[in-house]
Write a structure and sequence with these properties.
The complex is a heterodimer of chains A (341) and B (448).
Chain A: H1 3-37, H2 43-73, H3 76-84, H4 86-108, H5 114-138, E1 143-146, E2 149-152, H6 154-159, H7 161-188, H8 192-223, H9 225-233, H10 235-254, H11 258-280, E3 283-285, E4 289-290, H12 298-327, H13 330-333
Antiparallel strand pairs in A: 1-2, 3-4
Helix pairs in contact in A: 1-2, 1-5, 1-7, 2-4, 2-12, 4-5, 5-7, 7-8, 7-11, 8-9, 9-11, 10-11
Chain B: H1 4-45, H2 48-82, H3 84-116, H4 125-154, E1 160-162, E2 165-167, H5 171-175, H6 180-208, H7 214-248, H8 250-257, E3 263-264, E4 268-270, E5 273-275, E6 278-280, E7 283-285, H9 288-294, E8 300-301, H10 317-344, H11 352-378, E9 383-385, E10 389-390, H12 391-394, H13 401-429, H14 432-443
Antiparallel strand pairs in B: 1-2, 3-8, 4-7, 5-6, 9-10
Helix pairs in contact in B: 1-2, 1-4, 1-6, 1-11, 1-13, 2-3, 2-13, 3-4, 4-6, 6-7, 6-11, 7-8, 7-10, 10-11
Classes of the chains: A mainly alpha (341), B mainly alpha (448).
The structure holds CIS-heme D hydroxychlorin gamma-spirolactone and protoporphyrin IX containing FE (2 copies).
Chain lengths: 341, 448
């Protein structure tokens, strides 16, 4: 494996990590706001505080890792994406600020300020929408070079049906991932009411998820044939993903083995996400930027890889500890113990 | 092609974000160490008050961390969004510490999460204490790594430019550049110093508001002692920083000192008003500048006139420098008087006015941090990467930076007000007297 491919794989892996854990987080916020709106009890609030509060900062670091890493391994991305993404990314940052402060402010401040909960829920949907626009941009056609400077054509971007199907996919995926995971968590916590509610949400959101995937394939064929053809070359990855999706739905319908459902869900998205990534290769931005012409020098690449391996040695045991304490500890999950400072 | 508007607003937005971030980052670097010391003393002396002190600080820390993380994420992305040309160049040489910083964050975030949610979960209190070590180490290491990047901007090393191409890159040399030791040392010590004085200020403030509890007396004394140690360290390393400047960035020191003509036995000017090269109303300390620069009162100090005019920084940094140094010596004095007074039983250190002085010490230290960073950053102008790249060449060409500036003003306003309101409410609702009473009831005795 060349250093370029190694670098991009590592980054893609972390982005995948972010995708999964941030989706759980974003979706939970939305369902919480929704249940407040329709007057259901705050079934989900408890789960959000039990599971999400201790780990939100870790979630955020996954994102930081990705964007610092990409500039490290591929400095030229700073030039293309940095110049053009100012507006969408700044908006996403504003929304992240609302969410980040929610955990801290809300768990100590005014017990349940409704407006804040709505903002928090809404921000959880808008962030994936804003960030997924980057994927649409990477398909090319929206950035032109004017006077040596890359410029983003907003009109083209926001009137493209490709953009909107990617946004729709992002939203549906967030809600589906989140609902499936939380079904399992609520079940483990022994909260039947929440389990049933979340299971219903998971099933509902699987439908727009399936539709938007088909929509993207149709749009991509019009927009970027090279990428579309390469995706067809890797049809089996997407096939495995689809099969896993179907089995997850069946399991949810059977109302048992929720743990298996979560693993299948992760598998489904892993195959689709890596299928997408591999078929995108070697482009980071069609047709301007590939992983080869944007790559850093070899010395830096090697030192980044070494730092990465050393960092992982530190991280993996620590992450294991977090999971053990907050995810797999029965007493904590059931809310029997409260040890917050 | 340089877009002046974009350069101007990119500068403004960077200044805004960093000025805001550094408040929370300083607390983020220093406070874990303070919590650690308090908890350790509590365990050693078996004194519940110190444990409670650690716990209450930790609770407030959650709020400041949240804002630190959010604003830090903002500046991290803004570096690429606003200075894409700089990041493209710098990414090739100095990406390593930036990347390592994310691991430090990871490490800190993980253990902070565990630490906060496991009070009283372990039988053995020492186990819980151990969780704090990675938090403090992670926080300080993130400051070390990011400051390395900043030091590189001041003293770029570890690469060569041949025909416009960067070659012969040595990431380790870039990290350990000449500016690194003094910068990292000064930044760490000032963060510890400021955190100690902010916590001391809170204790003094509660006492002024009428609380007579021994808890606050213990807290105040502890943090004044720590503040004394770290403020002396700050002044010592600050002196080294000045010596670094003389050797590598003499124009920065000359501008900060309004030292125009190269001369021997140069005197130090404190404050004053400038008219061209004439300085009036300044406090003039003979030979002090030569002493500061070379440890020798008769040594020669290079003046500003030796440098091309378009490569010298704005002269207002003089005031920033003086402000920082004045506050530094003032705080050494205040904490020394308090600690000696405590040992010698001087009465006036318990008087109202002296407590107010201690209260002022918290915000003053924070002002010194801001002044110090503005000195360092504005003093680097017009360079973003000294002698390689100017700020104007580094900025984005985007047309929308002004709008984004407004957006971020709004965000920081909300975060700033929010964090203050929440912190106040948190401690108002649960004053120490009540918390101790509650724990008393829970455990059936032990502390009073
Ligand atoms: C509590 C805050 C504080 C206090 C009391 C001091 N400083 Fe400071 N100073 C900083 C906070 C700071 C800082 C914010 O940490 C800076 C900005 C960038 C840096 O490296 O550290 C800084 C920078 C800085 C620089 C510029 C370094 C550079 O640009 O490379 C010098 C020469 C000094 N300091 C010297 C001093 C001296 C002689 C002090 C005497 C007591 C002093 N500082 C007190
Ligand atoms: C956290 C404390 C810091 C503060 C308060 C601060 C403050 C400032 C200020 C006031 C400027 C504008 C100077 C001018 O345009 O006249 C600036 C510029 C800048 N700083 Fe810093 N800075 C800090 C730390 C850092 C660090 C650690 C880095 C590097 C990783 C950094 C990178 C930059 C960049 C890229 C610019 C823009 C270019 C320039 O104007 O020189 N800053 N900063
Ligand atoms: C241009 C300069 C800077 C960048 C790019 C930057 C980047 C960041 C980022 C991305 C985060 C969030 C990390 C997370 O998600 O957990 C953060 C938080 C933090 N930053 Fe900065 N930072 C800068 C300046 C500084 C400086 C100068 C210091 C220290 C002197 C500092 C210390 C911290 C600390 C300790 C945190 C953790 C939050 C906390 O514990 O309060 N940062 N920073």
């Amino acid at each position: 494996m060349s250093l370029e491919v190694l670098g991009v794989s590592v980054l893609w892996l972390f982005l995948f990590g972010y995708l999964i854990i941030a989706s759980i987080d974003f979706g939970a916020g939305f369902f919480n706001a929704y249940s407040l709106l329709v007057g259901k009890k705050r079934i989900l609030t408890v789960i959000i505080q039990r599971y999400l509060s201790p780990v939100w900062e870790i979630t955020n670091v996954f994102l930081v890792f990705f964007f610092v890493g990409i500039v490290g391994f591929f400095p030229r991305t700073a030039y293309f994406y940095g110049t053009t993404l100012l507006v969408p990314v700044s908006i996403a940052l504003g929304l992240l600020a609302i969410r980040g402060s929610y955990y801290a402010f809300e768990s100590y401040g005014s017990r349940g300020h409704k407006g804040y909960s709505f903002m928090y829920g809404l921000a959880g949907l808008l962030i994936p929408a804003a960030l997924s626009v980057v994927l649409a941009i990477s398909e090319g056609g929206f950035i032109t070079i004017i006077d040596d400077n890359p410029v983003l054509d907003y009109a083209a971007l926001f009137t493209s049906s490709l953009t909107w199907s990617i946004v729709l996919l992002a939203l549906a995926a967030v809600l589906y991932i989140s609902a499936t995971f939380l079904t399992w968590y609520a079940n483990k916590a022994g909260d039947r009411e929440a389990t049933n509610l979340l299971r219903k949400y998971a099933l509902i959101w699987s439908i727009p998820l399936a539709i938007s995937v088909i929509g993207i394939m149709v749009e991509l064929r019009k927009h970027n044939v090279i990428h579309f053809d390469r995706m067809i070359d890797f049809w089996y990855l997407f096939g495995i993903s689809a099969v896993m999706f179907v089995i997850t739905i069946i399991i949810l319908l059977m109302r048992r083995h929720y743990g298996v459902a979560v693993w299948l869900l992760i598998g489904q998205f892993a195959f689709a996400f890596f299928g997408y990534g591999i078929s995108h290769y070697p482009y980071l931005l069609y047709p301007h930027l590939t992983i080869y012409d944007s790559f850093t020098n070899e010395t830096m690449a090697i030192s980044l890889v070494i730092a990465f391996v050393l960092g992982l040695l530190l991280l993996i045991p620590s992450l294991y500890l977090v999971f053990k304490l907050f995810l797999f500890d029965k007493d904590y999950v059931r809310g029997k113990e409260d040890h917050h400072a | 092609m340089v877009n002046d508007n974009a350069v101007f607003f990119s500068r403004l937005l960077t200044e805004l974000t960093l000025t805001f971030h550094i408040i929370y980052a300083t607390i983020g670097v220093g406070v874990p160490l303070m919590i650690m010391i308090a908890q350790w003393i509590g365990i050693k002396k078996n004194d519940e008050h110190y444990i409670l002190l650690a716990r209450r600080i930790a609770r407030g820390f959650v709020i400041t961390v949240a804002v630190g993380v959010v604003t830090g994420t903002a500046i991290g992305l803004q570096l690429s969004l606003l200075w894409p040309n700089f990041m493209q160049l710098a990414g090739n040489v100095i990406a390593l510490p930036l990347f390592m910083e994310t691991f430090a964050f990871f490490f800190e975030a993980i253990f902070l999460g565990i630490y906060l949610y496991t009070w009283d979960r372990f039988e053995n209190q020492k186990k819980h204490f151990l969780l704090l070590i990675p938090v403090a180490v992670g926080a300080s290491m993130s400051a070390v790594f990011i400051t390395m990047v900043n030091a590189f901007m001041n003293a770029p090393r570890g690469f060569e430019v041949v025909d416009g191409q960067i070659v012969n890159i040595q990431p380790i040399v870039a990290m350990f550049n000449p500016a690194m030791p003094t910068k990292v040392g000064h930044v760490l010590l000032t963060a510890y110093m400021t955190s100690a004085f902010v916590l001391a200020a809170i204790a003094a403030f509660r006492m002024l508001k009428g609380s007579k509890h021994i808890y606050y007396k213990k807290s105040l004394y502890l943090f004044m002692k720590l503040g004394l140690v770290f403020s002396i360290g700050t002044a010592v390393v600050g002196d080294f920083s000045a010596k670094y400047l003389v050797a590598y960035q003499p124009e920065k020191l000359a501008a900060a000192e309004w030292h125009f003509e190269t001369e021997k036995g140069a005197s130090l000017l404190v404050f004053g008003i400038r008219d061209g090269e004439d300085v009036k109303y300044a406090i003039r300390i003979p030979y002090a500048l030569s002493l500061l620069a070379h440890n020798n009162p008769f040594a020669e100090v290079t003046g500003l006139n030796e440098f091309p005019e378009d490569e010298t920084p704005p002269l207002y940094i003089h005031f920033l420098f003086d402000l920082m140094v004045t506050i530094g010596f003032f705080m050494v004095g205040v904490s020394a008087i308090y600690v000696i007074g405590k040992l010698r039983r001087w009465r006036f250190i318990h008087s109202k006015w002296f407590r107010w002085v201690i209260v002022a010490g918290g915000p003053l230290s924070m002002i010194a941090i801001e002044a110090g960073w503005w000195l360092a950053e504005v003093g680097r102008q017009p360079w973003i990467l000294v002698r390689y790249m100017k700020v104007a060449e580094a900025a984005t060409s985007s047309q929308h930076v002004d709008l984004m500036l407004l957006l971020f003003c709004l965000i920081y306003l909300i975060l700033g007000i929010g964090s203050v309101v929440v912190l106040r409410r948190m401690f108002k609702r649960n004053p120490i007297e009540r918390e101790i009473a509650d724990r008393h009831a829970e455990k059936g005795g032990g502390i009073s």
